[in-house]
Amino acid sequence: MAKPVAPRGLARERVLDAAVALFAEHGVHGTSLQMIADRVGVGKAAVYYQFPSKEGIALEVIRPCIEDVERVIKIADGLPDPQQRRVVAVSGLVEMVVRHRRLAVVFYGDPAIDALMTSDPYFKAVNDRLRELMEGPDRSDVDRIGFSVFCSGVGRAAADPELADIDDADLHRALLELFGRILTPAVQPSQP
Amino acid sequence: MAKPVAPRGLARERVLDAAVALFAEHGVHGTSLQMIADRVGVGKAAVYYQFPSKEGIALEVIRPCIEDVERVIKIADGLPDPQQRRVVAVSGLVEMVVRHRRLAVVFYGDPAIDALMTSDPYFKAVNDRLRELMEGPDRSDVDRIGFSVFCSGVGRAAADPELADIDDADLHRALLELFGRILTPAVQPSQP
Question: Residue ranges of the HTH tetR-type domain (chains A, B) (predicted)?
Answer without folding.
Answer: 9-69
